[in-house]
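job 3f2a | input accepted
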Amino acid sequence: MDFNAIKERAGAFEPNMTAFLRDLIRIPGESCGEKRVIERIKKEMETLGFDAVRVDPMGNIQGYMGDGDKIIAYDAHIDTVGIGNRDNWSFDPYEGYETDTEIGGRGASDQLGGIVSAVYGAKIMKDLNLLSGYKVLVTGTVQEEDCDGLCWQYLIKEEKIRPEFVVITEPTDGNIYRGQRGRMEIRVDVDGISCHGSAPERGDNAIYKMADILQEVRALNDKLMDNDFLGKGTLAVSEIFFTSPSRCAVADSCAISIDRRLTDGETYKSAIAEIEALPTVKKYSARVSMYQYDRPSYTNLVYPTECYFPTWVIPADAEPTQAMVKAYAGMYGTPVVDKWTFSTNGVSIMGREGIPCIGFGPGKEAQAHAPNEKTWKADLVKCAAVYAAMPACYKDLV
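job 3f2a | predicted structure (398 res):
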């Protein structure tokens, strides 16, 4: 395999990738509103000569190169979060900007750059005959920001797609990532009895009960399991709700949402049990549950799931890890192998289904969900080149 030829080909596509990414940034595409983004990706895949392109009933786009019996997949979620407070942006988040080295705009790093590099990586594979008997699948997946991994639950169970392994193209700060903590969305509810606020002793204030629970939940964060590679499990209270007849009455219910991050060895059952065991949760007969997700996709397909996103780690000596390290080293030197802080579609691909995942993508984690988001043109090129070399490197190992 000629690594120099791959690098040169990827570099020659930089203007094309830049134009493609800027087009995608210009199209607002939050979760469940990705239709126009998918249409733009479809147009690019067809223009570049993908062997097959289809949009499935959920709304994910699938682009295929090659005709081998085994599939290697490259996944990029193509939905973005919103822009938040517009005053925090120094430029138009959808028009974006471009310099000699950077591209700015909502989704630049998280993670429209990933689909751009994956699409052009597949093009390079075809141009340079690098498919090595494999069929390559590039997926532009939907609803990840709402419910990470739901798209791949659908692809695996309903579309019957089961690759040899999947390259996750989320931003990796120029490194290779081989795992992440899992997460889950927990709700705690406690009841009270309302009464007139002028005589609070007649009622039972649910907010006061929750205040006691909150202190124990907060302290629980410091006691959670740790892991040498993935780090410590964490929790954060993210929302609080209440019901009351009026502002002149005692609250008769209160609830909180908890963002729980799970390190290796923790499960949704253990996380629920830890909260249920808290003294005030028992004292006030609070109810601990897991959220469910059932929001329709932009095609109006509903594919319900519980809001549990399992931890996953691929070994450092696994073939997909070695293949990516070899592809990177052949062109760019010795890589750093690390892990994500945030969550990815790997929670379903490997966490639920056991299909190996390995991560490498353009941009930086810290840009995700931030105002003035940007990515780097050099990252687009580097990732496309490494993606293109992956199938041949993998074939040499298996």
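job 3f2a | The chain has a mean pLDDT of 97.
job 3f2a | closed
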